[in-house]
Each structure stands twice: as C-alpha cells, then as structure tokens.
Specification:
Elements lengths: L3 H6 L8 E4 L5 E4 L7 H42 L8 E3 L1 H7 L11 E6 L3 E7 L19 H16 L10 E13 L8 E12 L4 E10 L2 E14 L4
Antiparallel strand pairs: 1-2, 3-4, 4-5, 5-7, 6-9, 7-8, 8-9
Length: about 240
C-alpha cells in the first residue's frame, strides 16, 4: 500500500492483480483497473492497525483467562467435601462394649460395616435356640416382627453411640418411635438377618435421631421401618 504523499506527487501505474494482506486472517485482491485513492489507503491502513491491535490484545488476555479458570478449579476442589471415612467392622465383643443390651435381648451378633454418624450394616444369626421360638409359635417358629424392629434399632444405636473403650460409653439410647413399618416375609430359624440402618436426621440439641432401617434375608427385603431414637446420659457409669 502506498502512502498518501506518494499518491499526490505522481500518478500510479496500473496495478496488476495481486493480493494485499491486511491482517493474518484477511486477504483481498485488487483488480488491475483499480486505482487507490488517498481515503481508501488511509482506511485500509487504519483497519489493519486496529485488527493487529485487537488480535494482540486477545492473545494477551488468553493466558490470563486460562490461568483464572485453573485457579477457580483448584479452589473448587479444595472446597469440596472430604471423603467419608472408611467403614469398620465389629465382632460381638466390640458390639457389647457399646450396646448396654445383654442376653436374651442382645440381637446383634456382629457388624459388617459401620461409619459412625452415617450408617451401619449389622447381622443377627437366627437359630432355633433363640428363647422366643418355643412360644412363637409352637410347631411353626417365626421371629417376632417387633424383635426384628428392635434388632434394627440396636444397629441404629451403634451408629449414634461413640465407640466404647474398656469402660464402655457414658451414653445410652431409647426407642422413641416407629413409622411406616412393614413386614415383607417371615424370618425363621436358620436365616441370617442383615440389617441396613442409615441416619437421616439428627437434632443434636434434643438428642433425637431419625433413621431408615431395612432388614434382608438372602438379599430379599423382610422388614422396613423409619426409626426414632433418643440419646441420653448413662447415669450408671
């Protein structure tokens, strides 16, 4: 592109068809019969400078935008909730160190999984030697439904109560209520009752906990209920 001063001093010779690159992204062709004027040259020059300036500004902003996204990604990952602790298991001795129940009313033999304050999976091995079978019922032993619910409540107590040491725990829980209880199939001697109890709501101020309990036999639902437990201090310790 020729300057305006050279255009005013001498006429331009005819231009052959040749490309004139105004920017890295735009190319135009000037026909042979075209003669640029001073205004058109100035307009193209200003347009080219503006495009180069805007391209340079965008290139300068790209690293900053990328860095900003990276910073926000790191902050979001740091603010994410920490993962839940790994579940633990408990044998009968560890269960008795937490629960105050004893024979014939201790209905949890072991715990397969426990995350305190979240959920637990407990097991009750149902045998013909359980003391309730002679009377419920003679000739057709069935585990009472109320004892299935009680067993789930004991598993819920393991979710609430802190792990017991040599002196046990200084807290105890009471059954506060049962809602939406349903019995789906009979539980008989030889069955293994697997109880899944999950904490759904806890009012620490009043010591009231609501839980969802489900009991299974061979993977089939046998009993389900919504439980309410109440925490209290154990004055006997």
């Amino acid at each position: 592109v020729r300057t305006s001063s050279s255009i005013s001093q001498s006429p331009d010779p005819p231009l052959e068809d040749m490309p004139v690159t105004l920017s890295a992204t735009r190319t135009v062709s000037i026909p042979s019969n075209h003669r640029p004027t001073q205004k058109s040259c100035r307009t193209r020059s200003l347009s080219a400078r503006a495009h180069v300036s805007s391209t340079a500004g965008l290139a300068a902003r790209l690293p900053i935008a990328h860095m900003t996204r990276s910073v926000f990604s790191v902050m979001a990952s740091e603010e994410a909730e920490p993962p839940s602790p790994a579940p633990i298991s408990m044998d009968i001795n560890q269960v008795m160190a937490v629960l105050p129940h004893r024979y014939p009313f201790l209905l949890v033999d072991k715990v397969k999984e426990l995350v305190p304050g979240e959920y637990a999976i407990g097991v009750k091995n149902v045998t013909v030697n359980d003391n309730f079978f002679p009377g419920h019922f003679p000739g057709r032993p069935l585990m009472p439904g109320v004892l299935q619910v009680e067993a789930m409540a004991q598993v819920g107590g393991l979710v609430l109560l802190p792990p017991g040491g040599e002196g046990g725990t200084n807290e105890i829980f009471f059954f506060g209520g049962v809602d939406k209880c349903r019995f789906r199939k009979p539980v008989v001697p030889g069955d293994v009752l697997e109880m899944h109890v999950k904490l759904t709501k806890l009012q620490k101020r009043f010591g009231i906990a609501k839980m969802e309990g489900k009991a299974y036999v061979d993977g089939k639902l046998a009993c389900e209920a919504e439980l309410m437990l109440v925490l209290a201090k154990d004055d006997s310790k």
